[in-house]
Amino acid sequence: MEVHGVETLTEVRCCCAGLLCDLLWSDPDKDVQGWGENDRGVSFTFGADVVSKFLNRHDLDLICRAHQVVEDGYEFFAKRQLVTLFSAPNYCGEFDNAGGMMSVDETLMCSFQILKPSEKKAKYQYGGMNSGRPVTPPRTATPPKKR
């Protein structure tokens, strides 16, 4: 996806397939070994074995990802080799989640801050949710709390 100035913002191509799509929409799944189908209807799920293999191959220690609601703002996977961050508390008024923020110091030590909403906002739909793009599902099967 490339944008070359304000005048091309309306010309951004959809990333519904290929590498960019998979980088954006693939999700970790504790019940999967290797690769699996994604409930989003696009891209894949992957197991802890895929995370370990990728980190070893590229001499890395941690994958930091986002784009998936997690209840406490951040959540580890694959023996703390992957962390999912989600910084929008009370996502779209649909979820009772906290937001999370990760800081990394000069020694590469990670610390996390939890972001709680100051007040519960009314439910709303952000403009892109019914646009045919996959929505950001929660990590857990916990349904949103009823009001």
Automatic annotation (TrEMBL):
The keyword Metal-binding applies. Its main location: nucleus. It comes from the Eukaryota. It catalyses: O-phospho-L-seryl-[protein] + H2O = L-seryl-[protein] + phosphate; O-phospho-L-threonyl-[protein] + H2O = L-threonyl-[protein] + phosphate. Coiled coil: none annotated. SUPFAM superfamilies: Metallo-dependent phosphatases (SSF56300). Keywords: Hydrolase, Kinetochore, Manganese, Metal-binding, Protein phosphatase. Residues 1-119 form the Serine/threonine specific protein phosphatases domain. GO terms for cellular component: cleavage furrow; cytoplasm; kinetochore; midbody; nucleus. GO terms for molecular function: metal ion binding; protein serine/threonine phosphatase activity. Its EC number is 3.1.3.16. Its cofactor is Mn(2+). It is an enzyme of class 3 (hydrolase). Pfam families: Metallophos (PF00149). This is protein-serine/threonine phosphatase. The lineage of its organism: Eukaryota, Metazoa, Chordata, Craniata, Vertebrata.
